[in-house]
Design goal:
CATH topology of the largest domain: Dihydrodipicolinate Reductase, domain 2
Distance between the termini: 43 Å
Number of helices: 14
Number of domains: 2
Structural class: alpha/beta
CATH architecture of the largest domain: 2-Layer Sandwich
Strand order of the largest sheet: 12-11-7-10-9-8-13
CATH class of the largest domain: Alpha Beta
Strand content: 15-25%
Largest sheet: 7 strands, mixed
Number of strands: 13
Radius of gyration: 20 Å
Helix content: 25-40%
Order of helices and strands: EHEHEHEHEHEHEHHHEHEEEEHHHEH
Shape: globular
CATH superfamily of the largest domain: Dihydrodipicolinate Reductase, domain 2
């Protein structure tokens, strides 16, 4: 017998997760809900799920695990409701809107044995795993520079921007998490710069459409994170890991959305990736397969609330750095 999984929030990522879950061998049933009844009905019909009217009804429906994919401001309360109900929970990034809310979740989890997994999918992408394995094996010597790039082809809806917490909390966090995971050390200082040349509503929202963040790790490794909302050629997500004896990259496949100007070189010559959903389809499948294993008690959470809290500190420091035009030490934002 497989498990029944509930999905709360059926926007772009919630509907995508529902689709992925519907294909997994270990999932026998799906229960879905969204604040928009018409969306709930549409997604339920498309993927053979049971629709319910509210998160509370979903939690009382007998589900074995829950995927929280609602808007960021609701993450903390929904995760806590799941934990209080004794139901394993997978929460899309970020775990919560602020480090304080992340801390509150950790405190609640500490009083429970209910597992919480956070949705940082790049940890499940084969090339990124291979990069991590190379670092752990010592193949690269000591690390001096790690670069992570996320360039979106177009901005998300402005309604999302208004509640996302800004580029560092809704986009850069993927890079912050993967760089921290690859290096295997903690960030001590952050310096961010950003600008707006696109939609003026980013400025109105107190956000930027393009940013670069420098991370200093406690062992001297430097992380460089680059992000933009405007990369018309496609969805560009790459990782570079440079050490004293070797360097490796992930994301340089035939579909990487760059135009190579080297004479006589045809790479890359594939159709560029258009979104995170096609770029990381297999990673999302592996991530949710891992969550089914967590539900069944076959493994520990591969990305914990403690991991998410450290990433939240980095995002908070990046935001403060951008606002104040200065380096910010993690100790300044750590609660």
């Amino acid at each position: 017998m497989g498990v029944t999984v509930g999905v709360i929030g059926l926007g772009r990522i919630g509907a995508f997760h529902t689709d992925t879950l519907s294909t997994l061998d270990g999932v026998d049933g799906l229960v879905v809900t969204d604040t928009r009844a018409d969306v709930t009905a549409t997604v339920a019909a498309k993927f053979g799920a049971r629709p319910v009217d509210s998160a509370q009804e979903l939690l009382a429906s007998g589900v074995d695990g829950v995927v929280v994919a609602a808007a960021t401001p609701s993450h903390a309360s929904l995760v806590i409701e799941c934990v209080d109900a004794g139901i394993p929970v997978f929460c899309e990034k970020p775990l919560a809107a602020t480090p304080g809310e992340c801390r509150a979740i950790l405190e609640r989890i500490s009083m429970s044995s209910v597992p919480v997994q956070v949705g940082y999918n790049r940890r499940f992408a084969p090339a990124f795993i291979a990069a991590k394995d190379a670092v752990v094996a010592g193949d690269l010597g000591w690390l001096h520079t790690v670069r992570s790039t996320t360039l979106d082809p177009a901005p998300p809806p402005m309604e999302y921007i208004a509640v996302s917490g800004g580029i560092f909390r809704d986009c850069s966090v993927h890079d912050f998490d993967i760089v921290r995971w690859i290096v295997g050390r903690e960030v001590t200082e952050v310096y961010s710069a950003g600008a707006n040349q696109g939609d003026a509503r980013f400025t109105v929202a107190g956000d930027v459409d393009t940013a670069t963040t420098i991370l200093t790790f406690d062992n001297g490794t430097i992380g460089v994170v680059s992000n933009t909302r405007y990369n018309a050629r496609g969805y560009d997500c790459r990782l570079e890991v440079h050490g004293s004896t070797d360097s490796v990259v992930a994301g340089w496949d035939e579909q990487v959305p760059v135009r190579n100007l080297e004479v006589g070189v045809r790479f890359p010559n594939g159709i560029p990736h258009t979104s995170f959903m096609d770029r990381f389809a297999t990673a999302y499948q592996a991530e949710l397969t891992a969550f089914v294993d967590v539900i069944e008690g076959r493994r520990e959470s591969p990305c914990t609330a403690s991991d998410a809290l450290e990433v939240a500190f980095i995002a908070e420091a990046a935001t403060l750095s951008l606002q104040q035009h200065r380096p910010v030490r993690i100790d300044e934002v750590r609660l």
